[in-house]
Amino acid sequence: MRYMTSKEIRETWLNFFKSKGHHIEKGASLIPINDPTLLWINAGVAALKKYFDGREIPPSRRIANIQKSIRTNDIDNVGRTARHHTFFEMMGNFSIGDYFRNEAIEFGFELLTSDKYFGMPKEKLYITYYPDDKESFNKWVSLGIDPSHLIASKDNFWEIGEGPCGPDTEIYFDRGEKYDPKNLGPRMIAEDIENDRYIEIWNIVLSQFNSKAGVDRKDYKELPSKNIDTGAGLERFACVLQGVETNFDTDLFKPIIDEVSKLTNVKYSENTMSYRVIADHIKACVFALNDGANFSNEGRGYVLRRLLRRAVSHGHKLNINEPFMYALVKVVVDNYSSFYPELNKRVDYLINIIKSEEEKFFKTLTVGESLLKEMAASHNIDAFKLYDTYGFPVELTIELADELHEKVDLDLFNKKMNEQKERARSARNDLQSMHSQSEDLLKCDVPSKFVYENKYLIGKVVALFKDGHKVDEVTDSGEVIFDVTNFYAESGGQITDIGTATNKTSAIEINNVIKAPYKQHLHYFNVIKGSVKLKDTFTLKINKNRRKLITRNHSAAHLLDATLSKVLGNNVEQKGSFVGDEYLRFDFNYNSKIDPKVLKEIENKVNEQISLGLEVKKMILPIEEAKKLGAKMVFTEKYGDIVRVVKMGDYSMEFCGGCHVDNTSDIGIFKIESEESIASGIRRITARTSLGASKLINDKEEQVNKLIGQLGAKSLTEASNILSSLIKEKDNLKNTLKSQMNKLAATEASSMKNEFKNIKDHQVLIKKISNADRDLLLNISNTLKTNNNNYLIILLGKSSIYITTDINSVHAGNLMKEVAKLGEGSGGGKPTEANGKANKEINISEVENLVNNLL
């Protein structure tokens, strides 16, 4: 067994499976596409689910890949153990209805033990298998694995909800007695005892059954298409082949850890956990952000924000008390860009967005510390609330509480955390299963052609289904494939076509179209008259007016995309889109709100290209030729060897399979309806064209005319003048009111300055001022406290209460809660000032008693 770098491990894996006839599939984006069951791509198979459940036919029945993945279910263990990570790379090989058990195990054995590849001694390998899976046991023995190294385990059965499932066989590498101080041996595998001796490096899943709720496992039916799904962690392979103690000592982490050591006076050996957390989490942030995720308060953006904040709090433990994570971006990029060259293109963007998020968090830390101190004053520190609501790390809560001589109820914190995890886990389990395979759709490979024509078309029924099952006739509702169709199937952000299909005896309404496993357009329909039979011919009639509106919006979206790059910079990239008949929506990365003048410039430039009447060309090209032409592509999308390119003059050129106008003048007019933030660093423009734009303009004109009428004006110019006068008048009245309030406050304060009482050497004023609102109470107290030290002022207005103090032993916020209770109200605030509200009149003597007892 020889030393191998992570680069060599990746190359060896892919080259081996390529030699075995596997198609090498480029790893997918970390952000799942069309899969609401996943927050992140979390395994090699996750991006290939569409092949396994039959929604799509794969480019090859044999596939191998290296898939970047994120898992955050064990985030608290990252840094504590040698092998837990949030970001990792999963090497995999897959068979979709091709080879099965024997070949999969043979490939595994050859790749691991042959000196031509990884060269691991077979004596070092231990294997687990499902007790009923005797075939796998016999296969491993036939290859030379000692039967004593084969361990049966009932846990070796892969199953998540309904759908494909089956036994699996796991491969462990024995690192020797050095990592087994109690000399427990293989018992640690059999009893699932956490250890550092036997490292699980590869799992081979034999997906051969279809699980069903309520059916006993022994009665599961076999799949029509048996599959192989394997996963091998690159980090674990690197640990074994580089002969190091932990994954964090491999070349995948060492450069980052070395860079962190330059930023702190704390050595790695003195706090390995914090170093490891930082190294792991910066990788997750860099890769997720590069794939289009963003920091936010929900979904994957919330997870990403938590990761960064956890890393920053560990930086605090290393005496790094300023933004620093952004400085590690370049190290991550340098270490990974040979295999992920796309990282090189966005280094500046990654540095800026991480630095900005760090700066926000340092402001949050200031707020969190203030809240914690308030909680400590009332001897009730809610660590979970600080963590969940304000993102304040529990480690810092414990540290600061200790400085304040307060205790944190960690049992309660852990209880609430576990409850939250269980809620999330339950929500995932409701969704996270592969679709059950539809055998009839899987086998349906009849040819079907899609054409972009807008005219009526004659189509022949070549396949007919009812709920995915093949039938010869449908009388109510079902799914149909025609030999040729012009109904667009929803994809690329563009909605589906709808319409009708008719012949002499029958009529159907087509309400949805999706792509079947072999890419045919599968039409969902309701029967209006007669029935639909196999081999029937129909006249297909898409809703032409709706299609025209969709094409106008889609072409406008391309012009908008090109304009954003020209006006805002080349770093702007599409992050999502929706193209319908009523409006278009375009999401893109940008770190600030777009100035209204710039937004108007963008709108004008799009309309300029529309007015120029640019020819819109649609070209079918080999992908490499399209790339050479400079056609824009969406990084997260996957494209075939042949692509469709839509070119609008010399202004815009993009990969696109959608419907478009023939000339930009066909769009008519483009009008931006709104521009907003939908996540940290992600903006959204909603716009309309053609009839939609006309309606939007008319609606705005109607609103303007209504305002003109309300102002009693006869024109927009007159309305503008009236409005300016009213604003000026309002400002004058505000200044007058402020002046009068100050005079009133000074008068009231002057009459009260001699009413302070000395209680235990404290200057105390408790006063009821009828009909006074909060602002007046605040003004009076500001005047009074300038002439006093060691004071406590409590002012009761009509319903408002205001308290201010500079006495260290008095917490204004806590006192306010007690005072407000006397009036069946509520309130709170800072140690030095607080506001409250009473719902009934407060007896001033009760307030005096409360203060006397307090002091």
Q: Kindly report how far apart the N and C termini lie.
A: 77 Å
Our count of helices gives 23
Which blocks of ≥5 consecutive residues have pLDDT under 50? 427-435
Query: Mind describing the biggest β-sheet?
Result: 9 strands, mixed
Give the number of DSSP strands. 33
What structural class do you assign from the helix and strand content?
A: alpha+beta
What portion of residues is helical?
25-40%
Average pLDDT value? 90
Beta-strand content bin: 15-25%
- CA-atom Rg in angstroms: 34 Å
* Outline type: globular
Key terms:
855 residues, alpha+beta, nine-stranded mixed beta sheet
Describe the protein:
With 855 residues, the chain is an alpha+beta fold. The protein is built from 23 helices and 33 strands. Helix 3 runs parallel beside helix 4 (134-142) and helix 20 (716-752) packs across helix 21 (774-785).
Task: Summarize this entry quickly.
The protein has 855 residues and is of the alpha+beta class.
How is this fold's topology laid out?
Elements: H1 6-19, E1 23-24, H2 49-52, E2 62-70, E3 87-96, H3 101-113, E4 125-129, H4 134-142, E5 150-152, E6 157-158, E7 163-174, H5 187-190, E8 198-211, E9 221-233, H6 234-241, H7 254-261, H8 272-290, H9 299-317, H10 329-336, H11 347-377, H12 383-390, H13 394-403, H14 410-431, H15 439-443, E10 449-450, E11 457-466, E12 469-470, E13 473-474, E14 477-482, E15 484-485, E16 499-502, E17 507-515, E18 521-529, E19 532-533, E20 537-542, H16 544-568, E21 574-579, E22 584-589, H17 596-611, E23 616-622, H18 623-629, E24 642-648, E25 652-655, E26 670-679, E27 682-689, H19 690-710, H20 716-752, E28 757-759, E29 762-768, H21 774-785, E30 791-796, E31 800-805, H22 812-822, E32 826-829, E33 833-837, H23 844-854
Parallel strand pairs: 1-2, 4-5, 10-15, 29-30
Antiparallel strand pairs: 2-3, 3-9, 4-7, 6-7, 7-8, 8-9, 11-12, 11-14, 11-20, 13-19, 14-18, 16-17, 16-20, 17-18, 21-22, 22-27, 23-24, 24-25, 26-27, 28-29, 30-31, 31-33, 32-33
Helix pairs in contact: 3-4, 7-8, 8-9, 9-11, 16-17, 20-21
